[in-house]
Structures are given as structure tokens and as C-alpha cells.
Design goal:
With 262 residues, the protein is mainly alpha-helical. It has a domain of 35 residues. The protein starts with 7 loop residues before the first helix and ends with a helix. The relative contact order is 0.12. The mean pLDDT is 85.
Length: 262
């Protein structure tokens, strides 16, 4: 360098950083295209449809989600559609087994009839006129073969109901784990936001000082480049933390079933 502040090693280091930056830029472009393709697939967007950023991630979230695991688990048990479906299936099978058992026991039925006919067959000898007769009674019926078949059918239905209950309990355990992981991701994102803000402020001040020293020929271009890289990393950390915060909130809303309830 003309001012004698940079050695040949510093120049080579800057060239290495430049090559690495070009490589990272190429990877970022490829990752952007892949992410856009996945997003179009998820949204069923047309090939020519324009996609734009729909939310300003620099703005704070309008509300903070609840973080009580027990409360959120109970809400998920009430609002998650798959849990609700399994609960309805279990109740239906239990009622079906109850109805099947009702057919096992002997059946007592009341019968009655009212006849107004000309001639009325209940009158002997027959008379060529309208006569009214009535009859009331009870009958007891029981089929042993049918009862044995219904017992087996009721046990089978009970087994299906128990299997559905176990499946729902296992799913509820999985939902609880999903909620716990979403809460952990939310806490990590909150911590990242809190720590990235002072880190960004320090990087901005460091870059400002290095830039002023470089203009006064008291710092090398390598030091200025390092300060600029640190500033870029700090800004990316802030952006990533805010993105992670929003992703964690969406995951938590889905785990609780709030998206289905809405």
C-alpha cells in the first residue's frame, strides 16, 4: 500500500476474504432460489406470481404468547383437530359397544293391536258389520346364538375404543413435547434478540472508530474489513433472531391449535 500500513500478507488476506465472500454470495443466491421454490410449492403459487416480503421483521411482535406449558397443553387438547377427532371416535365406539351389549340380554317388548273391520275375524260366526276389537300383551325374546355373537362384537368394539384412547394419549404426549420445543425455541429467540442488540451497537461503534482511524491512516484496510465483517455478522444475527422469533411463535400457535381455532 502507498501509505505503508498494509503488508503483502494483509493484501493476500483481503483477497482471500474477497474470494470467500464471493463464494458465500453464490451459495446465498442458490439458497434463495431453493427457498423460493419450496415456498411456491407450499403456497401453490403460479410460476409467474410475484412473491414479496409481507411482514416487517424489524417491528416488534404485537403480542407475546402464553408460556405456561400446562395451560397450553390443555388448550391443545381442546383445540387440536386431530385430538378432537380421536376423542369423538373414542366416544362413538364406546356408545357402539354399549348399544351392542344391550342386545345380549333378553328383550321384553309390549305389543298391542286395534282392529275395526267388516267382518271382524275375532267375531265368530262372522257378522256383516263393523266391529272393533283390541288386544294388549308382552313378549320376551332371547336368542342364545345371537347373544354369543354380540358379546364377541362388543369386546372387539371395546378393544377399538381402547386403542383409540391410547392413540390419543400418545398423540397428546407428542403435542406436549411439540409445545415444549416451541416454547424453548421462543425463549432462545428472545434471548438472541436481547443479546444481539448490544452486540450490534458495539459492532457499529467499532466500525465507526476503525473507519475514522483508516481515514487518518492509523488503521489498515484489513482491520477496517474485519470491522465491517463483524458489523455484517451482527446485523445478520439481529435479523435471524427476529425471524426465529416469528417462526417460534407460528410453531407454538400450531402446536396449541390456535390456528385451527381461528
Amino acid at each position: 500500500m502507498a501509505n505503508g500500513l498494509a503488508s503483502n500478507a494483509d493484501v493476500l488476506r483481503v483477497e482471500s476474504q474477497l474470494a470467500l465472500s464471493e463464494q458465500l454470495t453464490g451459495r446465498a443466491v442458490h439458497a434463495q432460489r431453493a427457498a423460493e421454490d419450496r415456498l411456491r410449492t407450499f403456497m401453490h403459487a403460479q410460476p409467474g406470481e410475484f412473491l414479496d416480503i409481507g411482514e416487517d421483521i424489524s417491528a416488534p411482535l404485537p403480542e407475546e404468547p402464553a408460556t405456561d406449558l400446562e395451560v397450553l397443553t390443555r388448550r391443545a387438547a381442546r383445540d387440536r383437530l386431530e385430538l378432537e377427532g380421536l376423542l369423538e371416535t373414542q366416544a362413538s365406539l364406546e356408545q357402539q359397544a354399549k348399544a351392542t351389549r344391550a342386545g345380549i340380554l333378553p328383550r321384553l317388548e309390549g305389543v298391542g293391536s286395534l282392529v275395526d273391520a267388516n267382518p271382524n275375524p275375532r267375531y265368530i260366526p262372522n257378522q256383516a258389520r263393523f266391529n272393533t276389537t283390541w288386544a294388549l300383551g308382552v313378549q320376551l325374546t332371547w336368542t342364545p346364538n345371537d347373544s354369543l355373537s354380540l358379546i364377541a362384537q362388543a369386546k372387539q368394539t371395546d378393544a377399538r375404543a381402547a386403542s383409540t384412547r391410547a392413540q390419543r394419549n400418545a398423540l397428546l404426549d407428542g403435542v406436549r413435547t411439540e409445545i415444549s420445543e416451541a416454547l424453548r425455541a421462543w425463549s432462545d429467540a428472545q434471548l438472541a434478540i436481547e443479546t444481539s442488540a448490544p452486540s450490534l451497537a458495539a459492532s457499529e461503534e467499532s466500525y465507526r472508530v476503525r473507519h475514522a482511524l483508516f481515514l487518518n491512516q492509523r488503521a489498515t484496510s484489513v482491520e477496517l474489513s474485519d470491522a465491517e465483517n463483524d458489523l455484517l455478522r451482527a446485523r445478520l444475527d439481529v435479523v435471524n433472531a427476529r425471524i426465529d422469533q416469528r417462526v417460534a411463535k407460528v410453531r407454538l400457535s400450531h402446536a396449541v391449535g390456535r390456528d385451527a381455532a381461528e
